[in-house]
Amino acid sequence: MQEKGTISIHTENIFPIIKKFLYSDHEIFLRELISNAVDATQKLKRLTLMGENKDEEGDLTIHVSFDKDKKTITISDHGIGMTADEIKKYINQIAFSGATEFVEKFKGKDDIKDIIGKFGLGFYSAFMVASKVEIITKSYQEGASPAKWVCDGTTEFEIMPTEKESRGTDIILHIAEDSVEFLDEWRIKGILDKYCRFLPVPIQFGTTEERVEDGKDEEGKPKYKTVTSPRIINDTEPLWTKSPSELKDEDYLEFYRTLYPMSEEPLFWIHLNVDYPFNLTGILYFPRVKNDFEVQKNKIQLYSRQVFITDEVKDVVPEFLMLLHGVIDSPDIPLNVSRSYLQSDSNVKKINAHITKKVADKLGELFRNDRASYESKWDDIGIFVKYGMLSEDKFYEKAKDFALFKSTDDKYFTLDEYREKVAPLQTDKDEQVIYLYTTDPGKQDTFISNAKKRDYDVLLMDSVIDQHYVNFLEQKLEKTQLKRVDADTIDKLIDKDENLESVLSDDEKDKVKTIFEEAVKNQQMTISVESLSPEDLPVTITMNEFMRRMKDMARTGGGGFAMMGNMPDQFELTVNGNHPLIGKILRSKKAEKKHQLAKQAYDLAMLSQNMLTGNDLTRFIQRSVELASEQ
Predict the structure, then answer these.
(1) How does DSSP assign 167-187, residue by residue?
(2) Same domain, yes or no, for 79 and 119?
(3) Which residues are known binding-site members?
(4) What percent of the chain shows pLDDT beyond 70?
(5) Is the N or the C terminus of the chain less surrounded, counting Cβ atoms within 10 Å?
(6) Alpha-carbon gap, residue 54 to 48, rounded angstroms
């Protein structure tokens, strides 16, 4: 019996909406149709287990094929199939109410993924690329007659009897002129590799040819033949679906190579396996990040029942863990998700919190079980931990026990251990414990050496987020300040109110200041003469800690500090009145000699801060040669 009718959607606007709104994501039509085929196949398996399917299951491979001449793409499965009545129920009546409100609500919006998920339009995504769609299907039910459904992209359809020997469904897409790009083998394979590489039912797309050895010729040399085999594009049992107890380290590493063939091996991994109060499986890998973490994002793949959804998982995974690699799979997240869905869904929020907890627990376990190994990985994982502490208070509460400081001596300390180490010697007159740090040991070596002469310790804080981390720690750690080792003279950085006696009179100090003002002639320098240790440098150039920190924040994206980044640099030039060179300058008979020596001391201070360049550097070198010749 042949039948014609109208699809029950109560509006003729549905297909233009599908085509218009889905266009930016139009390749997902293949994912949707194959997902339907997988569902049909898995339903058949369940019916067989329940004893309701009397037919032999046979080969359940799903086949994807195309015909460039006929301009068709076909998806064939051997699942439960449909009767004519089931076609009317599941295909012709799109399951939503209030079509007019639907059209108005989503008109002009880009995020149609949410629409598909809410209104069951997955099958109709076929019309993004097809001018006509045919369904040829035969139900598993005993005695069922095959049926054919045809629709040309309007609301008109036709159902008719047809011939089909085997159980299952063939979806035939007649590709529209504006979508012929999909009639290409490598375009289709690319989509299959992206969305279907881990589906639980075998997916075949064409065949592959391989040369294999086939005996020896008369001379004993190997002969070869070409063997054709089905091209199965997916792994039906990916690693995250298996129990951790049956897996070895090499299994995890091999899977990582499959996901990221060009990456270094990961440091370690976390296998997620939760079935209450939500379902979640997956494997998260800690990669070697170093300081270029921005380019590492969007490496976690989100799946739903082994179907790829997206690699933009910001709302599923905490922001600071976006640096991780791996896979998350949850059937509680629908295939077609919108940003608003991810932000509001309670299960997504629970998953987010659970992942944070699992990562914190794993890091804590690694630290406690093998501290030496943990310390060896800190240079790579430190950025995760610091980023997490900055981002989430709950993570900070756990991480403060396994977050490490690294000193310039390559020694590691927990936050509590470090305070205990430096507090006796690095507490200032106001009872503030001062943590000295360097952002560049090579450039700041002179200042580090001066600190170590006092037996002070210096931390290495050179990652891209350490400037923010420094500010954060000062808010969290009681009676603690962090100061960059080149932010001032060492006795001012840790001010113990111990004034050294000056070898210069006040009048001599004024003369020294005048000499340096005339020699330097730099409006950015505020010059002062201080009584420091004779072993300290004769001249030190520093930038005020507060001003420098604000400028650093502006450079690294601290939005509220943008204005500070545009302000001219201001430096403090500290002349050590107790250094022998300053006495020599005062004793010089000629004003020219005084200025020459003062300029030389100034240039040495500039050089120690990597601020001496161009013509000034050339003149410094020439002056150094002249002074050496006078000796």
Answers:
(1) SEEEEEEEE-GGGGGGSSHHH
(2) yes
(3) 32, 36, 77, 82, 97-98, 169, 339
(4) 86
(5) C
(6) 7
